[in-house]
Amino acid sequence: MLSAYIPLVVDGLADAALIFFVAVGLTLVFSVMRILNVAHGSFYALGAYASVVIGIWLTGRGGPILGLAALVVSPILIAVLLGPLIERTLLRWTYGRPEALQILVTFGLFLILEDAQKLLFGVQPYSNAAPMQIFGISQIGGIVYLNYQLLLIAMAIGVAIGLRLMLKHTRIGKLIVAVVADQEVAQTLGIDSSRVFILAFSLGVFLAALGGALASPTVGVAPGLGSETIVLAFAVAAIGGLGQIEGAALAAILVGLTRSAAIYFAPEFQPVAPYLVMLAVLLVRPYGLFGSVGLRRI
Amino acid sequence: MVFRHIIGLAVAAAILPLAVPWLGFVFVLAVGKGLAALGVAMLLRGGLISIGHALYFAVGAYATAFLMRDGRVQDLLLLLVLSTITATMAGLLVGAFMVRYRAIFFAMLNLAVSMVFFTLLSKMYHLTGGTDGLRVATPTLLGFELSRAAFNPILQYGSLLLMVGTALIVDRYLRSPLGEALSAVHSNEVRLEYLGVSARSVILIAYTASAALAGLGGAVTAMAVGHIVPELSYWTISGQLVLIAVLGGIGGTPGAFIGAFFLELIRTFAVGFAADAWNAIIGIALLVVIFFLPEGLYGLLMRVRKQEKAQ
Question: Scanning A68, B93, B147, B182, which has its CA 20 to 30 A from the CA of B289?
């Protein structure tokens, strides 16, 4: 009886893993730069497009195993190409400005990136399921699993632990924490905060693009992916409490499980599920699960 | 001052379509979006960013469509009033929850509510026509049946009146004690409360009024286009409304309409020669305005006027 729900849980957790990559990038960028990046979903879409195109190209050159490399190569490519460029030219200008302007600048960037995708990749859907098929399926206790889903869950856990370890134990991680805590004092102590901003933003771009790349074998890639993803990532980041890595992880699991439960029991309302969870959480805890009340101005 | 600008804008809007007929339709669409953007600009005065006001825009549009279906209400004026009331009620209901939140959480909760509404509109096929949307017939005016050709000029000059009327009322409101209290929520909410003014009531009134404006705009848009779809409530439309408000400049009420007209004009031209790139064109225009004209288009006009006077 209970085992009937195991596929539901695995589906939910695999979904949660993908949402987590995007949401944790969004929350990281927010906590370092205090900017809600509306264009974050576009990096997810770009990661998905790039990994399909590069994956098909690589598969043609060296077989499906080489094609797998695209899932890692394309997010790195996007982060290196776009991260520093966008942070230096656009975002830098918005630091310390009113929130409306910050959101609008990233909204402008979102509009530009949406059309850039259409011009680069056209409007027809892309798909490349080869990376998922390589891993095959496994059977445990009479239930069939997609190994790719299990891999996604493992990777998300790895990224969550890796981020935490990086922030706690590496030099760059400690610099990021210092800048988040107090940028002015950090700068007085000789920390180059603009370098930290570039690194943190590029890392956020990488995580979003990684989410897109890893999602691409399981879904078709088509225009509108970026705008769907960003609202979902907002919801997850808000549920967890903005700027909280553990919060984003817990929120992603909550949303992933709710979505897969909705698919099983009320498929029509699956798209509403994340927002209902968000409304419920924010009504009880106005700053999210792990968020704390900020200082009020007097 | 603002009064003269509004009248100037109205005269320009009345004459231009006579010279260039297709501008009339663009103008009505611009007024529809402009009304909603005016509501968003009002909230921005209080430092509140809503990325969800397309919700009320769509509520107004769907209210018009529902009322007209099966021939329940056909009259243009009655439709506008009833649709606005529906959006006002929705705004009051949602606003009662929203007043607890500020800054980014306010923005995101509005986004969440509008996305729930968007999903319901797309999924409840038997009621809303799903993603196909609903047709909106040509309304009657005071009992007279109108052909589409006779209706268009009426809608055009009617929306001109609406634009002038709402711009004047909102301008009055923003300069009243209640409007000043809204600005005070932005500059220092705690001090406002020490003065004995409830910040939550101030916000709730502004929020409900902004929902009413967005609903009115949605009703105008529904009548002009004759067909409505769930995408009216999608978050990118909400983003456009914030964009229009800032593009026009939140300093004065004419700004929202100038911004909306500017946006609709760009869209009309862009669809002609670069259909796939019009979002990018709008995005670039937005960045240019933010970087080089921090007071928006209206601010630019004011500055040019000042320089002319100085010479």
Answer: B182
Indicate the SS3 state at residue A137.
Answer: strand
Q: Report yes or no: A167 at the B interface, CB cutoff 8 Å.
A: no
More confident: A17 or B186? A17
CA nearest neighbour of B88 among B62, B117, B59, B65? B59
Q: What is the mean pLDDT of each run of 10 residues along chain B (311 residues)?
A: 71 68 82 92 88 93 88 83 93 90 83 89 81 79 75 84 90 88 85 86 93 95 90 89 81 81 84 78 84 70 67 60
Q: Which residues of B touch A36 (CB under 8 A)?
A: 104, 107
Q: What is the pTM of this model?
A: 0.88
* Interface residues from chain B to A (CB-CB < 8 Å): 44, 47, 49, 51, 97, 100-101, 103-105, 107-109, 111-113, 115-116, 119-120, 123, 188-191, 234-236, 239, 242-243, 246, 276-280, 282-284, 286-287, 290-291
Amino acid at B142: L
